[in-house]
C-alpha cells in the first residue's frame, strides 16, 4: 500500500466532496475545484467526513497514481478551506511591480516591462511596489485556491528575472537564500607587461 494513498483525507467543516464517475468536485468557503481522477484509482466519500482513495491493482502505475490522487484531493480540500499563497521579493535598484487590470507589470532591468497575465482565481497583493536601494526589496503576495496555478504563476514571475549570483538582483521567493559568488579580483599594480 502507498503510505500517502492509504491515509484518508479528513474534511474540515464547511467542505463538501462529490464524486460522479471519475469527476471529483470539492466545494468550500473559498470556492469550488474540480478534477478528473485517472482510471485505476477509485475515490469514495465516507459518512461525509473523509475521502478514501483506493486502487484497482498492485502494479507500479497504480501505486504511483494512488498516492498522487490522494495528495491532489488533499490539496483541493486545503485550497477551498484555507487557500494558498506565495510571497515573492524583487531585488535590484529601480526594479518594481504593479498590477494593471488583469496583468502584472514587472520592471526588472530590461528595456521593456515584462507583462504577465494574472490567471483566473488568482489575487496579487503588492506590499512594496518599488525597491529602495539594495536592502529593501519590492514585495508581492500571490494567493488563490488552486495550489498548482499559484505555484506555476509564482514560477513564471521568478523566471522573468531569476536571481543572479553576484549582486543578488532578480526575483526570488521570500526567505530563499541565493548562493553568492565573489566578483572578479583585479591584480595589484605593477604587474603585466
What does this protein structure show overall?
This protein has two domains: 9-81, Ribosomal protein L6 (Outer Surface Protein A, domain 3), CATH 3.90.930; 84-173, Ribosomal protein L6 (Outer Surface Protein A, domain 3), CATH 3.90.930. The protein has a four-stranded antiparallel β-sheet with strand order 11-12-7-13, with helices on one face. It is 19% helix and 36% strand. The protein has helices spanning 60-81, 147-160; strands at residues 9-10, 16-20, 23-28, 31-36, 41-46, 50-55, 84-91, 96-100, 103-107, 114-117, 123-128, 138-144, 170-173. With 193 residues, the chain is α+β, with helices and mostly antiparallel strands.
List the helices and strands and how they pair.
Layout: E1 9-10, E2 16-20, E3 23-28, E4 31-36, E5 41-46, E6 50-55, H1 60-81, E7 84-91, E8 96-100, E9 103-107, E10 114-117, E11 123-128, E12 138-144, H2 147-160, E13 170-173
Antiparallel strand pairs: 1-6, 2-3, 3-4, 5-6, 7-12, 7-13, 8-9, 9-10, 11-12
Any descriptors?
13 strands; Outer Surface Protein A, domain 3; 2 helices; alpha+beta; 2 domains; 193 residues; elongated; 4-stranded antiparallel sheet; 3-stranded antiparallel sheet
How would you sum up this structure in a few lines?
19% of the residues lie in helices and 36% in strands. It contains two helices and 13 strands, in the order ββββββαββββββαβ.
Terminal CA distance reads 72 Å
Number of domains: 2
Number of helices: 2
CATH architecture of the largest domain: Alpha-Beta Complex
Let me know the average pLDDT: 89
Largest sheet, in brief, is: 4 strands, antiparallel
Could you give the order of strands across the largest sheet?
11-12-7-13
* Strand percentage: 35-45%
CATH fold node name of the largest domain: Outer Surface Protein A, domain 3
What's the CATH superfamily of the largest domain, by name? Answer: Ribosomal protein L6
- The shape, in one word, is elongated
Quickly give the structural class: alpha+beta
Oligomer class: single chain
- The secondary-structure element order is EEEEEEHEEEEEEHE
Please provide the count of β strands. Answer: 13
Report Rg. 23 Å
What fraction, in percent, of the residue positions are helical?
10-25%
List low-pLDDT spans: none
Name of the CATH first level of the largest domain = Alpha Beta
Amino acid at each position: 500500500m502507498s503510505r500517502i494513498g492509504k491515509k484518508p483525507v479528513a474534511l474540515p467543516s464547511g467542505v463538501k466532496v462529490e464524486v460522479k464517475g471519475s469527476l471529483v468536485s470539492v466545494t468550500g468557503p473559498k470556492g469550488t475545484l474540480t478534477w478528473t481522477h485517472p482510471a485505476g484509482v477509485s475515490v469514495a466519500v465516507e459518512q461525509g467526513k473523509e475521502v478514501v482513495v483506493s486502487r484497482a491493482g498492485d502494479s507500479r502505475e497504480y501505486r504511483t497514481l494512488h498516492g498522487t490522487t490522494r495528495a491532489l484531493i488533499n490539496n483541493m480540500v486545503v485550497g477551498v478551506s484555507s487557500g494558498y499563497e506565495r510571497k515573492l521579493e524583487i531585488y535590484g535598484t529601480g526594479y518594481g511591480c504593479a498590477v494593471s487590470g488583469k496583468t502584472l507589470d514587472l520592471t526588472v532591468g530590461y528595456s521593456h516591462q515584462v507583462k504577465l497575465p494574472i490567471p483566473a482565481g488568482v489575487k496579487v497583493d503588492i506590499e512594496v511596489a518599488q525597491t529602495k536601494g539594495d536592502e529593501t526589496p519590492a514585495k508581492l503576495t500571490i494567493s488563490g485556491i488552486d495550489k498548482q496555478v499559484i505555484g506555476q504563476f509564482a514560477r513564471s514571475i521568478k523566471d522573468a528575472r531569476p536571481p543572479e549570483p553576484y549582486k543578488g538582483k532578480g526575483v526570488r521567493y521570500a526567505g530563499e537564500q541565493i548562493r553568492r559568488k565573489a566578483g572578479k579580483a583585479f591584480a595589484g599594480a605593477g604587474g603585466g607587461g
